[in-house]
Amino acid sequence: MAVIENAAAHEYKPQKKKKSESAEDKRKQKIVPGSLMKALIRPGSGDSMPTDGDQVIYHCTIRTLDGVIVESTRSEFGGKGIPTRHVLGKSKMILGLLEGVTTMKKGEVAMFKMKPELHYGEDDCPVSVSDTFPKEAELHFETELIDFSKVKVIGEDLGVLKKVINEGEGWELPREPYEVKAWISAKTGDGKLIRSHTHGEPFFFTFGKSEVPKGLEMGIGTMSRGEKAMIYVTSQYLNQCTFMPRVEEGIEEVHFEVELVHFVQVRDVLGDGRLIKRRIRDGKGEFPMDCPLHDSLLRVHYKGMLLDEERTVFYDTKVDNAGHPLEFCSGEGLVPEGFEMCVRLMLPKEISLVTCPPDYAYEKFPRPSNVPEGAHVQWEIELLGFEMPKDWTGMNFRSIMDDVEKTKGTGNRLFKEGKFELAKAKYEKLLREFNHVNPQDDEEGKEFLNIRNLLHLNVAACYLNMGMCKNSIEACNKVLDGTPIHAKALYRRGLAYMESGDFEEARSDFNKMMSIDKSSERNARAALLKLKQKEQEVMKKDRKQFKGLFDRKPGEISEAGNVDKSDQTAEIPEKDNTDFSKEDDIVEDAVEASPPPPRLGQLSHLWSTLIARSKTR
What we know:
Layout lengths: L3 E3 H5 L11 H6 L7 E7 L11 E11 L4 E4 L11 E4 L7 H6 L8 E6 L24 E12 L1 E2 L6 E7 L12 E10 L4 E5 L5 E4 L7 H7 L7 E7 L18 E12 L1 E3 L7 E6 L15 E10 L6 E4 H4 L5 E4 L7 H7 L7 E6 L20 E11 L9 H20 L3 H15 L7 H24 L3 H12 L6 H13 L3 H14 L4 H25 L34 H4 L19 H13 L2
Helix pairs in contact: 7-8, 7-9, 8-9, 9-10, 9-11, 10-11, 11-12, 11-13, 12-13
């Protein structure tokens, strides 16, 4: 036997005291000279040794000092033949091996002599053994370090680990419901082959459909294209599936060698399985950094199909549009919502197949005559390219204001069409960009302030129509904080207060509006009349709810809200058809007038018009 050395003395040198000691540091203080001895039986290779976080794979045979075998992982000594796998610093290990293994090299065989307090006789030892185990005896641990490497811990219980063999490309990782192709072979912990799928066509499965063992899928979910890895899966993460129709009893773990050949990005865009985007051909660039931004000019070819047996084509730009692509600006409501949502998730040159439900296709959009009402559709879309929104850097003030008018006009059109969320996005984009605009003189400053206030009020109008009164009030306050006597802002805020039931605040705004701008008196008085009607409706409803509550004699009990059902119709106020936004010439709910949207009966006609517009730009 080789020379015995004191592992404790070798490893522990005087060090500066740490600010805070971990439980493991405190545990290692139990190692004292003579408690852990190491004898080198066979040297290992290389210079490196395991460190914290490494997975170590080793065989170990435990003997008494007179050579009687107590326990072993080796089959020739009664074990299962499966080496032990531990992650240093994470797995539960006896103290002597936790310290001793870190002194070994790959392939090395060593004998560790341990006092009881360094193995299973340690107080509060994290590893349990049978009652017949000689915990109080000094023992020999013959250990062979088969391998060690860095691993990724995937399961918190260490049930799934991954060792990278070859790095992959890109950063995108497969996830539900991606379609995956991979070469896979599976072996038991002792090297027995279970299944090998490494020839012919790669194994194909859909992520999230339990077609491979759960632990294997968890491991593949951390791999990039082209990556090759070993995935270690313990029994609790093994299940019957397409890849492994039967899991034999007694298998404690399976080692999967995987090469991720390819995966197809499949996205459940809405999260409910109705709007599905499936990538057919990869695009150029990295997702999502190279996808179209909001307000980009997009160029696409597409083919629209019905989900019938024949997959009837109802429109094809390459046939019905003389081979010209469709051009449209995102965020302007010019194509069906589901269509745009998916195109904005594409890379240039990508081809995707989109399956779309009616409410995101043509239920709320001009429907082609050859598409039945309520039909689910598929679009095969190719994103040819896109142009980024105009950058204001280096532009003079007048050019910026011209661009503002164009975008604001688009927002106004969307507002008139009832697309308040899209309209709000246009106004808010301009407000964000305004943070980088610097007027050069008083005239430009005045124009800048007026436009900015107008945009805030347009945002408030959008919120008001979306039923978000609190947000509408906040948008008005951004104007009133700088200009407290702004009549339009007071009017808009008053409407929001009125809709939210804060009648006193609404009355205050309408009265103040009249006092600072006599020309707004007609609109303010109309708003006050509407306010009075709303107050009366609320009071009437309250009286009915508490009717009889205070009419009883002393000692009698009355229940609130006991309303005569025969008279419930009286609670419903008559519909008020007054449209203050139309009467009010100082508040622009749709803001300035803009050309009405095209009224077209067929989608092909609409999109052909868009193409014609894009050619005139």
